[in-house]
Amino acid sequence: MAILHHHPFCPHSRFVRLILAELGIEAELVEEKPWERRVPLLELNPAGNLPLLLDDSGLAVPGPAVIAEYLDDTRGPTLGDRRFLPQDPAGRVEVRRLVDWFLGKFHGEVSDYLATEKIYKRFMPLELGGGPPDMSAIRAARANVRYHLKYIGYLIATRNWLAGRHLSYADLAAAAHLSIVDYLGDVPWDEDETAKHWYARIKSRPSFRTLLADRVPGMAPWEHYDNLDF
């Protein structure tokens, strides 16, 4: 069985968990605290970032984008229209562009700030950066999420899914990152109904069930977090 080293509220880890669930791949989940940088994890991935997938053969595949590409290489050719990275070059470029947008830009401007300040720092020791949240970082993330939400709405207004006709890695990456922000109640869904309806479609998929069941100890999710109809 494959093994996934992850953290339940690491948005990159959630992206890979969605992919595995969509592909029907069972994996043993090993929870890591990213700030601890455990030696066994560093031996497998010297960068120490999450997630890390160990496939059935023991091959260590590090990082969300590399894991997504690896799973497309090994599973994609048998999926036909269900392939999450299309076969045509232009389609692949668009999916990769949007995956980079959410794994890079959205993470750097929104989800990393909120996960760190409102979740991780609650459990990190002071010497590793734990303590009260930085409210200026939280305010910046809340401001930034608004234009990302508008961009999602813009894309979905002319497409069936974010990158085109079919569900792709772009949708899974965006939804994984938004799910963290949604847990914390920091997505202004009333500002873009189109984006909200797209997220409801994703949230209703069976692959999302385990994410919706995750809980931060001592912090309940926002009231609509696991409500499939919002």
UniProtKB/TrEMBL annotation:
<feature type="domain" description="GST N-terminal">
    <location>
        <begin position="1"/>
        <end position="79"/>
    </location>
</feature>
<dbReference type="InterPro" id="IPR036249">
    <property type="entry name" value="Thioredoxin-like_sf"/>
</dbReference>
<dbReference type="Pfam" id="PF13409">
    <property type="entry name" value="GST_N_2"/>
</dbReference>
<protein>
    <submittedName>
        <fullName>Glutathione S-transferase family protein</fullName>
    </submittedName>
</protein>
<dbReference type="InterPro" id="IPR010987">
    <property type="entry name" value="Glutathione-S-Trfase_C-like"/>
</dbReference>
<comment type="subunit">
    <text>Homodimer.</text>
</comment>
<dbReference type="GO" id="GO:0006749">
    <property type="term" value="P:glutathione metabolic process"/>
</dbReference>
<feature type="domain" description="GST C-terminal">
    <location>
        <begin position="88"/>
        <end position="222"/>
    </location>
</feature>
<dbReference type="InterPro" id="IPR004045">
    <property type="entry name" value="Glutathione_S-Trfase_N"/>
</dbReference>
<keyword id="KW-0808">Transferase</keyword>
<dbReference type="InterPro" id="IPR040079">
    <property type="entry name" value="Glutathione_S-Trfase"/>
</dbReference>
<dbReference type="GO" id="GO:0004364">
    <property type="term" value="F:glutathione transferase activity"/>
</dbReference>
<dbReference type="InterPro" id="IPR036282">
    <property type="entry name" value="Glutathione-S-Trfase_C_sf"/>
</dbReference>
